[in-house]
Amino acid sequence: MLIATFAFAWLNFIAKYLDSFHPLQVVFFRTFGTFIFIFPYMLIKKVPLVGKHVFWLSLRGVLSFSSLALFFVVVQNIPLGSAVALRYTAPIFSVVLAFYFLKEKVKFWQWVSLLIAILGAFIIKGLDFRIDTYNFMLVALSALLLGGVFTIVRYLGSKEHYLTIINYFMVFSMVGSLFFISYWRWPIGKEWTWIFLIGIAGLIGQVFMTKAFQVADTNTVAPLKYMELVYAILLGFLFFKESYSFWPIIGMILVIIGIIGNIWIKQRKY
Length: 270
Hints:
Elements: H1 2-17, H2 23-45, H3 54-75, H4 80-87, H5 90-101, H6 108-127, H7 133-156, H8 162-178, H9 191-215, H10 218-221, H11 227-240, H12 246-267
């Protein structure tokens, strides 16, 4: 999971670094760079390309693409650590959606934990003046859509191969990005290196995160996902000279405490 989060942090860093490209072109770079590795593997291993639950897989693909596109728009406009922290509120929406649509039980202290995370998000927004309302709303919508993705993946469970689910995300993102091709430009020089690396980072992150959840229980692995925020803050500081005052850091900590608390409480048997 530490490797996965490091890879995802670099993916987000590259998305911000490539701010001279349209965000939807960066989405294409990210998904195509992973697709060219995953798709041949699926063919070799005879993993189903279409799957049995086409509607839900397609909806997952649309929501994932939309969430990533919005996030890449935001990450080019606000500090990297803040963008990552605010998108981490996705489990809040996932819990609410699962409560209403999957009829999952939500414990009282889970709601408390989620309120702590929400409080953290608003502290980040209210006291980091580099975050305007427009970008805050966009990243909140990105988190909401990602919460929907989590809910659908939970619903599909073992009904579909995980690569089939990922492949829908890749295909829908590539096709959706092409609608904005009139805003694209041709990469030059060293930009090709970063374009190649964003796809590799996405592949490494996806594979290692999946493997982490396969070999260890959620309680052990899930909290490590938030190392991505630590990496993001460090990369933002080193490469973009981004720094944070006391209260935005407190807000980030509250988001992490709230989301990890939700995971921990949910897994407890009483």
